[in-house]
Structures are given as C-alpha cells and as structure tokens.
Design goal:
Blueprint: H1 33-45, H2 50-53, H3 62-82, E1 96-97, E2 103-104, H4 120-136, H5 153-181, H6 185-201, H7 214-222
Antiparallel strand pairs: 1-2
C-alpha cells in the first residue's frame, strides 16, 4: 500500500497509455496551505494506515480538508479511468451501469435538468466535466487563503463525491478484467479504499448510493478492523 503514495510519480508513467489522461489534472497551487495539506495527506498515506490517514488533522478546517481530498480523488479517478477509456466505448457500454441492477442517467440541474439515458463514456464525460467545473469555481473551491467556503460547500462536495463513486462502480463492475490485464488492480483497490474510508469518516455518501459495491466495501473494511 505505502509505496503507491510515496511519490508523485504515476504508477503508469512508463507506459504509453498513461500519457492519455481523461481530463486535465487539477493542480493545487504550490506554496498554498492546501498544497501543504495535500503533502500532509500523502505523508500519512505513506504510513499504510488509511483509517488514520483520512482523519482531519488537528487544528485544520474541515471544509478545506474535504476540498483538498476531493481534488485529489478527482485526479486519481481521472487517471484510473484514463487507462481504460479504450475499453469503455459506446458499443461495449451503451448504458452507464454498475452491474445489472444499477443504471445511472445523467442530469446536472442546469444544462440537463431531466435525467437522460446515455452511454457510459458519454455519462463519465459529462460527470468529469461537471466536477471539473465545480473544482475550478473559486466561489465553491477557493484556493486563496482567507477566502471563505460557501455555506452550501458541504452539499456540493457530497454531490461531487457521490458522482465520482459511480465511476469506481462502473470500472469495478464492467472493466475489472481490463484492470487486471493492465496489472492495475492494486492501485484501483488502494485508491477506492482510501476514497471509501474518507467518505465514511465524514459521512459524505448515503449508504444506499454505495450499494453497487457494498460487498467490496465490507471486505475492504473488515481487513482493517
């Protein structure tokens, strides 16, 4: 577990596929307090104790901690999905699903108000573009010190994380064989475990939303008790 987070080098950096990330990486400005928090997060992840690593550092602002980690999860999921985009096509995934019992329809409440049925690649494109727009909005995710988070920040963060979970769920249910062939399952599992421990720590995703991966979540959790 620990060596995955010991440096900023992507585990896929050597392969040709890796250069093809799905969306531009969202960078936290160096020298900022959020950058320091991200470095703290990476250092504690290196200890291998994920339950401890997700806890709010002493004296830190909860909104800021959630913001930094949300950006980090967006980057991780972005990279993980970027490695399997060639297997996730209109033909292979005509609907956005997480197994036979869960299907997702897209709506963002502004451009698309009524949920639309679309292919997984289209859905994930909508989803990641929408998340990126939220992360780039300085009124929602202020990067400057002293600029307050909006009153609705927590509900925005919860919606972002709920939607990012769906990308993990789709990868696990529909593309895990490709992940195995690329020998990326350890990275996917570590990233997902970190994500789950984080949302559990701060109660950020409703249990019903996690149902598509409930068995896996229980398995990951039981190893750490």
């Amino acid at each position: 577990l620990s060596n995955l987070f010991s440096s900023n080098v992507s585990p896929f950096a050597s392969g040709s596929r890796s250069s093809k990330t799905f969306k531009p990486k969202k960078n936290i400005p160096e020298g900022s307090h959020q950058y320091e928090l991200l470095k703290h997060a990476e250092a504690t992840l290196g200890s291998g104790n994920l339950r401890q690593a997700v806890m709010l550092p002493e004296g830190e602002d909860l909104n800021e901690w959630i913001a930094v980690n949300t950006v980090d999860f967006f980057n991780q999921i972005n990279m993980l999905y970027g490695t399997i985009t060639e297997f996730c096509t209109e033909a292979s995934c005509p609907v956005m699903s997480a197994g036979p019992r869960y299907e997702y329809h897209w709506a963002d409440g502004t451009n698309i108000k009524k949920p639309i049925k679309c292919s997984a690649p289209k859905y994930i494109d909508y989803l990641m573009t929408w998340v990126q727009d939220q992360l780039d909005d300085e009124t929602l995710f202020p990067s400057k010190i002293g600029v307050p988070f909006p009153k609705n920040f927590m509900s925005v963060a919860k919606t972002i994380l709920k939607r990012l979970f769906r990308v993990y769920a789709h990868i696990y249910h529909q593309h895990f064989d490709s992940v195995m062939r690329l020998q990326e399952e350890a990275h996917l599992n570590t990233s997902f475990k970190h994500f789950i421990f984080f949302v559990q720590e701060f109660n950020l995703i409703d249990r019903r939303e996690l149902a598509p991966l409930q068995e896996l979540i229980e398995k990951l959790g039981s190893k750490d008790r």
